[in-house]
Automatic annotation (TrEMBL):
Record-marked site positions (Substrate discrimination): 17
Cofactor(s) of this protein: Mg(2+)
Chain sites annotated for binding Mg(2+): 12, 107
UniProt EC number: 2.7.7.7
Main location: cytoplasm
Name of the protein in question: DNA polymerase IV
Annotated Gene Ontology cellular component terms: cytosol
All residue ranges annotated as the UmuC domain in the record: 8-189
Superkingdom of this protein's organism: Bacteria
Keyword check for Metal-binding: yes
Amino acid sequence: MVEDQRKIIHIDMDAFYASVEQRDNPELRGKPIAVGGNPDSRGVVATCSYEARRFGIHSAMSSARAYRLCPHVVFVRPRFDIYQKVSQQIREIFLSYTDLVEPLSLDEAYLDVTTNKANIQSATWVAQNICQDIRQRTMLTASAGVSYNKFLAKIASDVNKPAGLTVVTPDQAAPFIAQLPIRRFHGVGRVTEKKMKALGILTGADLRTHSLLELQQQFGKAGQYYFNIARGVDLRPVVPNRIRKSIGKETTLDEDITDIDQMMTIIGDLSQRVGALLESQQTSGMTLTLKVKYADFQIVTRSFSHEKPIETAADILEIAGGLLKKTDAGERAVRLLGVTVSHLTIDICAVESLQMDLPFV
């Protein structure tokens, strides 16, 4: 099987923003911290430390609820310029092992190490070395998943967080997928999860019992994807410097909201993230799109094309704020917000990955 020959690593930094803040401020170490707006500003948690997660706090949760869950949580304003610099350091480590690096965000990436600059035959050893290098250079921890495709590598990286390493070989794939709760499958959101559970699909094993035709009838074009991943099939290569048509971020809220100020705080956080990605990719865009999902799951989008490139978080926030006024947000409760910059001014050429048969362990 061709895809069995690939050796893919997914690296995911552990509580990235929060870990950077704890690293840079010793007084925050060992404490529950939330990066984002404080409860008085009707903000939202961008990410939080593992100490905070023990209280049930998580990203996209309103700051007010985070405070209720943990009254002694420390709120820290995000410093996206610092996170971007650290991300660049991590990217340089990746590139010292392979040119086949596909960044997903500031804190995670796929790497194809089938052939690598260190001439290490075991992908597991490469992952161990990368995590060690990250810790030595940045004083931060990362978790890694190693497998023969992107789907399994990504899931594996989340199994033993923080500072974990999980390997899923081709022989281990079937039982590994079978026991996975369906919510753990990348691409299965809340609505799809609810529909799958109604069909009796609770795990990967359940998903595999359904034919391709059944899944296509229930989920349309996505049916082919679900059919494949239930069998451990994911033929997507790691594509560095891929041609990107857009750069965006969205967040599903912990609770439906009607407060416009709180929505603007969330949009401000999304704008900072997208702005940082634009800068890291050294690009900008001509069109901004705001995505709003109402409490009844209806999705609307509003777009604005600018005569000048949209390239900073401030640009994004200003335009997105105007677009929000063109929706029914506020009059109707909102459960998801997203911002996307498209018609990028610089396209990045795609590179095909190479494949060889090398051992995992």
